[in-house]
Write a structure and sequence with these properties.
The protein has 463 residues and is of the alpha/beta class. It has three domains: 136 residues, Rossmann fold (3-Layer(aba) Sandwich); 179 residues, pyruvate-formate lyase- activating enzyme (Alpha-Beta Horseshoe), CATH 3.80.30.20; 63 residues, OB fold (Dihydrolipoamide Acetyltransferase, E2P). It contains 15 helices and 20 strands. Strands 1-7-6-5-4-2-3 form a seven-stranded mixed sheet, sandwiched between helices. It has a five-stranded mixed beta barrel with strand order 16-17-18-20-19. It has a three-stranded parallel sheet with strand order 8-11-12, sandwiched between helices. 44% of the residues are buried. Bound molecules: 5'-deoxyadenosine and iron/sulfur cluster (SF4).
């Protein structure tokens, strides 16, 4: 590893005891996981967590680079953090400011140049070295892709930290991406596809379950490309995880159509703990645009996976990501996307306007789509998707399923959890139902949640 030191940035003095850490996560679930692990590092270093940035001796922004506004948001947060740092300095309190994540990886020294209040810039593969970086005493940038195993170097979360995070836990099983979609920065910021050994993942899940976690989402940029050195694949990993004591429900995200094998589809039949939910980004319904995006699959291949998944598990909730206004996208291409959406019928989905990311092939394309066209297409697509989401929600009225309640609701006596299909569900339930699978019947639909009532448990461990 090499740590580049910027001589221009100011030094930060060593800290006294009772220090506080504030971590803010932007972007995807992988960042949520990384943020928790950075919090674990800080806790082990003697910090306490705070939700008040002004009270923090250590501030970590775990950043996302996937779309433009994400990095703009970071620079505005950093401006505010700089003022807080100055106010604290006036009171004789020092503050270390860390930028982690994908913007850190992509922009490196540029971050120090744009905001000299920053002390550490650390990429997603290097944050296990945070203690050393914080002790460097000068501004440092650490964004090399190291060969050492980050996961081995990370401290296990304390039981207290697991409890505070609730019964639903993320576990990173795979990182990076070799797909190089023409619009995407991930292969550059997260590096090549790499899977963690199954044994280590299962040990981590077992530890989290032992500390009270019940619902586990196995995450990776291309989670269904998971294959460890022993040849274990995602379906096998999910089967092994399902056998661990305390594991009640399993999910995985995000999958790529080209890695959707039969074993994983079958897992939705064979593995009773696996939730009937599949997030499978398609990005576009136009074969011409899919080709320009370098997706290496066409719309028919996607529809075929959807049909196979539904044959295996008829109630499966499908979710996706879409990009509108990719360079060269015509009205006809866009209508092919609307047509694909109509054919599938999604339970939920995310739609984004294409945003040009420096260094990606699509950023060089000459035929960029005007902003007002992207805006108008986004609106049409979102309207269609929102209608499908509401229809899916309405169709669950009267359904009974298991919900693992994980927090209290807005009104006294209410608890909130997620349905097998990822919808938020609230119901009147005793506080000790938190962390257990309760059987719920859906009695009403709200704009962003389902209202349920508790019913007698029949098969407590099933979805
Ligand atoms: N512009 C817009 N959306 C993007 N995504 C990735 N890169 C871009 C980009 N340059 C979207 C994709 C991906 C999701 C996580 O973010 O839809 O699946
Ligand atoms: Fe980005 Fe494509 Fe890889 Fe997904 S599959 S992370 S969109 S390059």
């Amino acid at each position: 590893m090499s740590i580049r030191v910027s001589p221009s940035a100011e030094a930060t003095p060593a800290e006294a005891r009772e220090k506080r850490v504030f971590v803010k996560s932007f972007g995807c679930q992988m960042n949520v996981y990384d943020s928790q692990r950075m919090t674990d590092i800080a806790l082990k270093e003697g910090y306490r967590e705070t939700a008040d940035i002004a009270d923090a001796d250590l501030v970590v922004f775990n950043t996302c680079h996937i779309r433009e506004r994400a990095s703009e948001k970071l620079y505005s947060e950093l401006g505010k953090a700089r003022e807080i740092k100055q106010d604290r300095a006036a009171l004789g309190r020092s503050t270390q400011l860390v930028v982690a994540g994908c913007v850190a990886q992509a922009e490196g020294n540029e971050i120090l140049r744009r905001q000299n209040a920053v002390d550490v810039v650390v990429g997603p593969q290097n944050y296990h070295r945070l203690p050393d970086l914080l002790r460097a005493g000068r501004a440092v940038v650490d964004t090399d892709f190291g060969l050492d195993d980050k996961f081995d170097a990370l401290p296990a979360p304390s039981r207290q930290a697991v409890r505070a995070r609730g019964v639903s836990a993320f576990v990173t099983v795979q990182e990076g991406c070799d797909k190089f979609c023409a619009f995407c920065v991930v292969p550059y910021t997260r590096g090549a596809e790499a899977s963690r050994p199954a044994g280590k993942i299962l040990a981590e899940i077992a530890r989290l379950a032992e500390a009270g976690a019940r619902e586990f989402t196995l995450i990776g940029q291309n989670v269904n490309a998971y294959r460890d050195g022993e040849g274990e694949v995602l379906a096998g990993l999910l089967a092994a995880a399902a056998r661990l004591p305390g594991v009640v429900r399993l999910r995985y995200s995000t999958s790529h159509p080209n890695d959707m094998d039969e074993a994983l589809i079958e897992a939705h039949v064979d593995n009773p703990k696996l939730a009937p939910y599949l997030h499978l980004p398609v990005q576009s319904g136009s074969d011409r645009i899919l080709k320009a995006m370098n997706r290496r699959h066409d719309a028919a291949a996607y529809l075929d996976i959807v049909a196979r998944a539904r044959r295996a598990r008829p109630d499966i909730a499908l979710s996706s990501d879409f990009i509108v206004g990719f360079p060269g996208e015509t009205e006809v291409d866009f209508e092919a996307t609307l047509s694909l959406v109509r054919q599938v019928g999604f339970a939920s989905a995310f739609a984004f306007k294409y945003s040009s990311r420096p260094g990606t092939p699509a950023a060089e394309a000459g035929d960029q789509v005007p902003a007002h066209v992207k805006e108008e297409r986004l609106k049409r697509l979102q309207e269609l998707l929102e209608g499908q989401r509401q229809a899916f929600n309405r169709a669950t009225i009267g359904a009974r399923f298991g919900v693992i309640f994980d927090k209290t609701g807005r009104h006294p006596g209410q608890l909130i959890g997620r349905s097998p299909y990822m919808q938020a569900v609230f119901a009147d339930a005793p506080p000790d139902a938190i962390g257990r699978m309760s059987q719920v019947e859906v009695i009403d639909v709200r704009p962003n949640s389902l209202k349920g009532r508790l019913v007698e448990a029949q098969q407590s461990e099933e979805t």
